[in-house]
Specification:
The protein has 172 residues and is mainly α.
Length: 172
């Protein structure tokens, strides 16, 4: 089975997010320049979204029970250590990929179930939401790095070889 085009885009987006963090020191990863979040929080926050969709709902597993309380939407600001959140993010995305590797165009049109009912957005839309969320925080992390005076940081999207558009990329 070939990789679903939205999964390919998510993986490219993840790589761009992580590329944007290259060279961030541990001390800078916990700095919060209010109202912006710390970079460590951003990494954990994105891990939380993938954990919720692709691990908890899709696979009925909970890898990190307290993650949402630490970095979930609407929770108090926090400055978790960048190294810890990167380790969490890697574990979550590895487990999420176990589900995402099974995605087909038909499965992308289905809904993940929570407590006996399904959400309002199908799996494909949740993938799009995740991709867009990554780009939002990629920009936020770049802004934090700029404010911190990091001279060596990515300024634009990297090479697209891993995420090119192909004629087979159809949503229907």
């Amino acid at each position: 089975m070939s990789e679903h085009h939205l999964v390919r885009q998510l993986r490219f987006t993840r790589n761009e997010f992580i590329r944007g963090l290259d060279g961030v020191a541990a001390a800078d990863g916990i700095r919060r320049l209010a109202p912006l979040n710390s970079i460590g929080w951003m990494v954990g926050h994105l891990a939380n979204q993938e954990h919720g969709y692709w691990v908890v709902l899709a696979q009925q597993k909970v890898l990190f029970p307290g993650l949402r309380d630490l970095v979930g939407t609407g929770k108090p600001a926090s400055t978790p250590p960048l190294g810890d959140r990167l380790a969490t993010w890697r574990a979550v995305t590895r487990e999420a990929d176990a589900y995402l590797d099974t995605l087909t165009p038909e499965l992308a049109l289905t809904f993940l179930r929570r407590g006996g009912s399904h959400g309002e957005e199908n799996v494909g839309t949740l993938l799009l939401r995740t991709i867009y969320h990554y780009w939002f925080h990629t920009g936020e992390a770049a802004a934090v790095r700029q404010l911190l005076g990091h001279a060596s940081r990515p300024e634009f999207v990297g090479p697209m070889g891993a995420a090119t558009y192909e004629a087979d990329d159809r949503l229907s």
